[in-house]
Amino acid sequence: MALRRLVLAGGLAAALAAGLAGTAVGAASAVPLPPLPLLSPPDSLTVTVTGSGNPDAEGSWKLTCDDPPQGDHPAAARACERLEGFARAGENPFAPVPADALCAQVHGGPVTAQVTGVWQGRRIDARFSRANGCEIDRWENVEPLLPSVRG
């Protein structure tokens, strides 16, 4: 009886090994599929501007940088082009002004903006103002994502 179990176990092991070998050979001879493109969701942002005193430069707009750009942002195509330029250059237009930056003490008005959403796969929650020279430069650097509010 023990000999019979040993023979049966050996036969089962051989059958499994042959089946696995056949699978490996079949898989190796199959034509490989091309890799799937890495699809990332398009950039999707909400821009809210307040305090400009200009009704054309205030409001809240949606922007999705897809092909073609979508949303109600007044300069959607140009804003997406600008954001794509930052991405190609490896720059983050949403980074705050460094705390130790030396900034000209000029005031560009009480206008503020908030940009939220997703850009280049990163969650964005950035605030912009025109409180000093550095903040004014930061604002103007992302135009036309933010409206021009120069006086």
UniProtKB/TrEMBL annotation:
Keywords: Disulfide bond, Protease inhibitor, Secreted, Serine protease inhibitor, Signal. Pfam families: SSI (PF00720). The keyword Disulfide bond applies. It is found in: Secreted. This is Subtilisin inhibitor domain-containing protein. Residues 1-26 form the signal peptide. It comes from the Bacteria. Belongs to the protease inhibitor I16 (SSI) family. InterPro entries: Subtilisin_inhibitor, Subtilisin_inhibitor-like_sf, TAT_signal. Residues 44-126 form the Subtilisin inhibitor domain.
